[in-house]
């Protein structure tokens, strides 16, 4: 139904416009005939009838504009006729009097303005007098739309006839003061007519009227553009005359649409240097605007213009400082917010975003100004808790992102004391996203966080990532939890300082924050701290730090012990065991035997008490054996104790094959090519023990399956024998290798042994290797020559 009504209304408008256009064209035809015949009386008669169509109240502003433009084109022809008429002896004063005899006021005033234009052009009368008369006479039309277009016509035809500085009409025709007074008076009357439109007609058509008013706003704004183009309007006149009069009209009209548009016009049309010198007056009007006016956008545009001005003309920066632009903008921002207690939070924060953007562009070196803006925003947010409005949240994120993007340095941002206070008001997910952004900035720029204070400040910003807090979802349900914690872990490696004491304090501070983060985070974040500390130990070792040094390797290892011990709350025994072994190896490199022994002890205790899964035990055992093999710091007694434990636990693994592999791996604990332990007898003992376990495994397989299992273990042990045989271990004689070869040959040819292609290929490869060694002409060939295949 509404759509049908709209179509009908549009059709009616088209019909009324068509009728009016037809009458304008009809009368224009007769007017042209009269003009061609130099018949002034008929010309005036038909032009008045043509202009009478502009008296209609039926047309919408858009349609009325089309009718006006048609009439305007015809009036231009009439104006040329009036100029020619004066050449034929008729004075402009006579014409000026003659057109005032038109019957209706609207046609009369259009004709009067047209003649007035010719009158001014002829200089037969001072321009100021004619302009004053025209602007006063135009008050006779008080219908909003008709009056606006009439005055727009007056502004249009008089634009090039104002007595401006340097104009041909200056002097006897008046001064720039007269030109300014004329434009201001016309502007004032047009604004009144424009505002009056809002209060005409029924309340239900309010939206329609507002739409129509927005279509007509440029008619009013053109007056301000004319003022800005006047050569004689210098800073003094703008400050003392133009701006006060315009602002008076803006404030007093108390109309939302007019106030917003006119403030925007002032900002856009007048020069930047004028705004800079009249900042206080312009900003003083902002709190006086209606509460529904979008002041934040107005002020944002002003700040944007000023900051662009400084960017394009750096020489004006001292002037900016002289007029205390920041102080005035800051004060005005607070006044606007205080004057509008019902302003939505998003509006207030948007104002702070605009102010901060201005500050960062103009006063980037003044961190105190930046912090002041953040502090003002925090004061506005204080007591509100977490912000739930999504639009306001978006603006807060923009506020917090601005310093990051400007300085591109998180260390600089950490100096802003109010930054974390504002960030606290973000909801959990947004706060976390902001924290991730901060870490990404650090990683992207490889920014080093080099003091305890900075670490504390940074972790205050990242607390939603590194600690549990109220409102957090369960971590099991949290999206991207592991990726976020990995980011935090990477961050640890950028916590650095060349001073040993400060570096140690940084590690302790980071550990304190991480251990408060809950058990689920520890397993993801603590390892990075451990490896950072181990790197620190290597540096201390390189610098030959001793126990008397402010920070000694022993002190760092004590810290590491406590840090890894905190993983027991997770629990994460397998991770803790790996970290203990890393520390043991580092302690060995630092020649700290008691420390290394303690870390091995802790690893064995974890293995005994915490690791129950058989697969985890296998992995742990091989890690222990590998680490122990690489450590060279132990004396005979400590090494024997540890190797005894390692071989003992290896033989107690659940499955026989796992026992076998762990035991033959233990053989490496007794033979070190780098001049360490070299005990061939114990190597052989491990290999023989592994062989016995392999035999037992074969028998178990035969008993349970009815046939022997594959001979994989035997081939693996053969390869260990060959390794030590090549190394020249005296106890591993060729006869032992020969015996094992024959055993494998027998097993593989047995009908009870199940066939396995992979095992056969493994054994064949081993045999080829032996054959290739036998064919060599060096010591290796001589050694392998005793083995028969």
From TrEMBL:
Major site of localization recorded for this protein: cytoplasm
Compartment(s) where it occurs, according to its Swiss-Prot or TrEMBL record: Cytoplasm; Endosome membrane; Golgi apparatus, trans-Golgi network membrane; Prevacuolar compartment membrane
InterPro entries: Vps35 (IPR005378), Vps35_C (IPR042491)
The keyword RNA-binding is annotated on this UniProt entry: no
Membrane-topology annotation of the record: Peripheral membrane protein
Family statement: Belongs to the VPS35 family.
Protein name, entry field: Vacuolar protein sorting-associated protein 35
Species whose genome carries this gene: Selaginella moellendorffii
């Amino acid at each position: 139904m509404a759509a049908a009504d709209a179509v009908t209304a549009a059709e009616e408008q088209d019909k009324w416009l068509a009728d009016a256009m037809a009458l304008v064209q009809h009368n224009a035809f007769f007017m042209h005939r009269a003009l061609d015949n130099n018949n002034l009386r008929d010309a005036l008669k038909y032009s008045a009838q043509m202009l009478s169509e502009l008296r209609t109240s039926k047309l919408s502003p858009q349609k009325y504009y089309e009718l006006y433009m048609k009439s305007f084109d015809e009036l231009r022809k009439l104006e040329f006729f009036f100029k020619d008429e004066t050449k034929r002896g008729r004075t402009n004063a006579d014409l000026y009097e003659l057109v005032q005899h038109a019957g209706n006021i609207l046609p009369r005033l259009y004709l009067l303005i047209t003649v007035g234009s010719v009158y001014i052009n002829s200089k037969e009368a001072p321009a100021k007098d004619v302009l004053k008369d025209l602007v006063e006479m135009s008050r006779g039309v008080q219908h909003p739309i008709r009056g606006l277009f009439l005055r727009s016509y007056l502004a249009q035809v008089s634009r090039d006839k104002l007595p401006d500085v340097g104009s041909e009409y200056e002097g006897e025709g008046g001064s720039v003061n007269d030109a300014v007074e004329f434009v201001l008076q016309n502007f004032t009357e047009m604004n009144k007519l424009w505002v009056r439109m809002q209060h005409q007609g029924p309340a239900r058509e309010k939206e329609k009227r507002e739409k129509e008013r927005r279509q007509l706003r440029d008619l009013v704004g053109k007056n301000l553009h004319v003022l800005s183009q006047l050569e004689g309007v210098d800073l003094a006149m703008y400050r003392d005359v133009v701006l006060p009069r315009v602002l008076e009209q803006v404030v007093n009209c108390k109309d939302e649409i007019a106030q917003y548009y006119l403030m925007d016009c002032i900002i856009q049309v007048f020069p930047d240097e004028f705004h800079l010198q009249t900042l206080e007056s312009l900003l003083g009007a902002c709190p006086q605007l209606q509460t529904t006016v979008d002041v934040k956008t107005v002020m944002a545009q002003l700040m944007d213009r000023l900051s662009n001005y400084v960017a394009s003309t750096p020489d004006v920066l001292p002037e900016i400082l002289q007029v205390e632009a920041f102080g005035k903008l800051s004060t005005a921002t607070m006044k606007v917010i205080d004057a509008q207690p019902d302003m939505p939070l998003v509006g207030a924060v948007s104002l702070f975003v605009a102010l901060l953007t201005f500050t960062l562009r103009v006063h980037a070196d003044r961190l105190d100004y930046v912090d002041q803006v953040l502090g003002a925003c925090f004061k506005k947010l204080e007591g509100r808790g977490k912000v739930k409005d999504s639009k306001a949240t978006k603006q807060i994120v923009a506020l917090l992102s601005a310093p990051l993007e400007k300085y591109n340095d998180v260390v600089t941002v950490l100096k802003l004391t109010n930054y974390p206070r504002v960030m606290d008001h973000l909801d959990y997910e947004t706060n976390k996203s902001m924290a991730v952004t901060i870490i990404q900035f650090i990683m992207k720029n490889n920014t080093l966080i080099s003091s305890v204070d900075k670490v504390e400040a940074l972790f205050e910003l990242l607390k939603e990532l590194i600690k549990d807090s109220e409102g957090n979802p369960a971590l099991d349900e949290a999206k991207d939890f592991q990726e976020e914690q990995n980011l935090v872990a990477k961050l640890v490696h950028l916590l650095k300082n060349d001073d040993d004491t400060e570096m140690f304090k940084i590690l302790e501070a980071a550990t304190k924050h991480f251990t408060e983060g809950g058990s689920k985070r520890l397993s993801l974040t603590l390892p990075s701290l451990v490896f950072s500390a181990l790197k620190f130990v290597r540096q201390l070792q390189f610098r030959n730090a001793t126990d008397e040094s402010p920070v000694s390797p022993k002190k760092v290892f004590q810290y590491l012990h406590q840090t890894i011990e905190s993983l027991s709350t997770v629990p994460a025994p397998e991770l803790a065991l790996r970290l203990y072994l890393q520390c043991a190896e580092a302690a060995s490199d630092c020649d700290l035997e008691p420390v290394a022994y303690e870390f091995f002890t802790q690893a064995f205790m974890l293995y005994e008490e915490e690791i129950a899964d058989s697969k985890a035990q296998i992995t742990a055992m091989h890690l222990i054996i590998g680490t122990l093999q690489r450590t060279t710091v132990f004396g005979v007694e400590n090494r024997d104790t540890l190797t005894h434990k390692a071989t003992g636990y290896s033989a107690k693994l659940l499955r026989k094959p796992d026992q076998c592999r762990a035991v033959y791996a233990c053989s490496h604990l007794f033979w070190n090519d780098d001049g360490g332990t070299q005990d061939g007898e114990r190597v052989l003992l491990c290999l023989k023990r592994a062989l016995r376990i392999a035999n037992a495994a074969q028998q178990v397989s035969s008993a349970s399956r009815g046939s022997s299992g594959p001979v994989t273990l035997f081939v693996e042990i053969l390869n260990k024998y060959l390794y030590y045989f090549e190394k020249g271990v005296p106890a591993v004689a060729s006869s032992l290798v020969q015996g094992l070869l024959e055993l494998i040959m027998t097993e593989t040819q047995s009908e009870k042994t199940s066939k396995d292609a992979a095992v056969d290929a493994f054994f064949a490869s081993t045999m080829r290797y032996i054959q290739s060694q036998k064919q060599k002409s060096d010591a290796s060939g001589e050694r392998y020559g005793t083995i028969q295949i």
